[in-house]
Design a protein that fits this description.
The protein contains three helices and three strands; from the N terminus they run E-H-H-E-H-E. It is α+β, with helices and mostly antiparallel strands and about 100 residues long. The longest helix is centred in the C-terminal third of the chain and has 17 residues, at about 70-90.
């Protein structure tokens, strides 16, 4: 037998929290052509033609529509790039982000 003390091993587990998700929302306006909105949705959010058209029509009818949900930094980047694409063509196209509940 040895004279050393035995200590139980204690494992500390760090709990990794998932990043909070944010919604990217398309805000309707009466000036941006529908075809252009669909083009931006397909290019920036990788939506199919049919999906992009449905999102655009929903935003048109209801005033806004959730396009997709991403981690905060991705959502903000995509919303900014999509909004900038509209501004580059002189349209008031606008995307916003907000935390998902």
């Amino acid at each position: 037998m040895s004279d050393s003390d035995t200590k139980p091993r204690v494992k500390t587990r760090t709990k990794v929290e998932r990043p909070r998700l944010h919604k990217v929302i398309l805000i309707n306006d009466d000036f941006t052509p529908r075809e252009f909105v669909v083009k931006v949705l397909k290019a920036e959010f990788k939506l199919s033609e049919d999906q992009a058209h449905r999102v655009m029509i929903t935003a048109h009818r209801r005033g806004a529509c959730v396009v997709a949900v991403f981690p905060k930094d991705v959502a903000e980047t995509k919303a900014t790039r999509a909004t900038d694409a509209g501004r580059a063509q002189g349209y008031p196209l606008r995307f916003e982000t907000e935390p998902e509940e």
